[in-house]
Amino acid sequence: MIRGVTNGDDAVLVSENFIGANDGVGAWAQKPRGHAALILHFWALAAERDASISSSVSASAEPDPVAYLQKAYEQTLEATSAATEWKGTTTACGAFLHHIKSVEGLEPLLYVTNLGDSQVMVLRPQTQDIVYKTTEQWHWFDCPRQLGTNSPDTPKANATMDKVNIKEGDVVLAMSDGVVDNLWEHEVSQNIYDSMHSQANMLHVAKELVKAARKIAEDPYAESPFMERAIEEGLAMEGGR
Known about the structure:
- The chain has 241 residues and is α+β, with helices and mostly antiparallel strands.
- The chain is built from seven helices and 13 strands.
- The strands form four sheets. A six-stranded antiparallel β-sheet has the order 1-2-3-5-6-12, covered by helices on one side. Strands 8-7-13 form a three-stranded antiparallel β-sheet. A two-stranded antiparallel ribbon has the order 4-11.
- Helix 1 packs across helix 2 and helix 5 crosses helix 6.
- The longest helix has 23 residues.
């Protein structure tokens, strides 16, 4: 069974120690369980296997999420070649929860990997701070780095990986550009804080964030981050995306 949830071209997955969002190119929407879902599936499996090995062998063992993503990418190429010949590309972002040793014992450490223009963001509701967010990777405007058919990008060569110190109560978001193209970071964070204040259930919080992004995406006159970037590129555009 393929891990995670997919609408055809995009995929999201949440497990005990891993969260990821892969944004597939829309042209491949007719291919359910395509590159986005398969890469995320194999990536999560590798992360889960590593978590099991690391916890049983040595508390000091360090994970390698980029290597996991590279393996997932290679497995997907193999699975979508030959007889199947599925075509597709996807961005990839994910956060792997691990730990580090300190004088006080084990402390949580987040390993964040990104390739393309999806985004991982870490929020600290206690202080309402944005602790961390990934940086978008583009070849040129509206053409992000991506994995799959005819793309020169690979995790080994192009993915970034950061280590983020986190605390209990922090919120880790993995978002496609469907969110970050329509909501500025302060709108994302405020939406999360407001939703958590009204209801602590994180499924409710996620749905409220998607609802806010969709509202802008469907408004042809709204101001949006994507519109702002398009204007900076000299393109006449307004509304969400």
